[in-house]
Amino acid sequence: MKRLMIVALIALCVAALLPQTLSAGFGIKGGYSLSKFTTAPVGGIFSNMPSPVGGIFFSLGLGPLAIQPEVLYVRMGGKIEILEDSLEERLEYIQVPVLLKLNVIPAGPIRPFIYAGGYGAYLLKASEVTLIGGVTDELDVTEIYQRYDYGVVGGAGLAFKLPGISISIEGRYNYGLKNILTDPGAGDSYKNRSMMALVGIGF
Question: What is the CATH number of the domain that holds 55?
Answer without folding.
Answer: 2.40.160.20
